[in-house]
Amino acid sequence: MKHSTRKFRPIAALHACLVLLGGAALSLIIFDPAQAQTEAPSFTFAGSVLATVVDSATFTFPASIKDVGGPATNYNAYFQIYDINFHYLSQTYYTGQTWSQGQTLDFNPTLTAPSTTGFYFVEGLVFDTNYTGPIVSDSFFGTFTTKPAAVPELSSALTTGLLLVFLAGLLILSRRPVKQPAAQRVPAKINRL
């Protein structure tokens, strides 16, 4: 095959494209950034919630939110607790969050467990800047149950120590002479002359 030794001429190539493709080629070549449509932000969530939490206790868990869509500036990340019937109970949030496309932000949200023993869900949500639009993305981080606080058990050392003090006290009391109160003393026989 024979190679051409002609020099590449960009203007001539552009003219040839315009002739072959017509006006469609012109719109491909002349690009107006103001008319470009950017991809909407979209997010994925990752994290893990403790399986069991004490009633009314605060707990923290690691969570991350990754922007898998277009960039997001000044968005709001929420972490919320729902009961088994999906009734909202409480939340914590981070406002003014900004993601570039593909960026992951890490969070350590602190929530307070409900005071009623039961089964609950933790959800992550991302809202737009001023909350006027719908939820951009949401996902459940997991579930947890609450339980009453356990009554602390006495350690064996403390139990043994208390038992020894009690026994020592009994021993001391048993070795001590018991004096009867003056009112209960039996008077000695009185000898009459």
User: Roughly what is the average pLDDT, rounded to an integer?
Assistant: 78
The proportion of residues forming helix, as a percent range, comes to: 10-25%
Number of helices: 3
What quaternary form is this?
single chain
Low-confidence stretches: none
CATH class of the domain at 43-147: Mainly Beta
The shape is rod-shaped
- Measured by DSSP, the beta-strand proportion falls in 25-35%
What is the count of β-strands?
10
Q: In terms of structural class, how would the helical and strand content be classed?
A: alpha+beta
Could you give the order of strands across the largest sheet? Answer: 2-10-9-5-6
CATH architecture of the domain at 43-147: Sandwich
State Rg.
40 Å
The sequence of SSEs as H and E is: HHEEEEEEEEEEH
Largest sheet: 5 strands, mixed
- According to CATH, what is the topology of the domain at 43-147? Immunoglobulin-like
Please describe what this structure looks like.
- This protein is α+β, with helices and mostly antiparallel strands and 193 residues long.
- The protein has a domain at 43-147: Immunoglobulin-like.
- The chain is built from three helices and ten strands.
- The strands form three sheets. A five-stranded mixed sheet has the order 2-10-9-5-6, with no helix packed on it. Strands 1-4-7 form a three-stranded antiparallel sheet, with no helix packed on it.
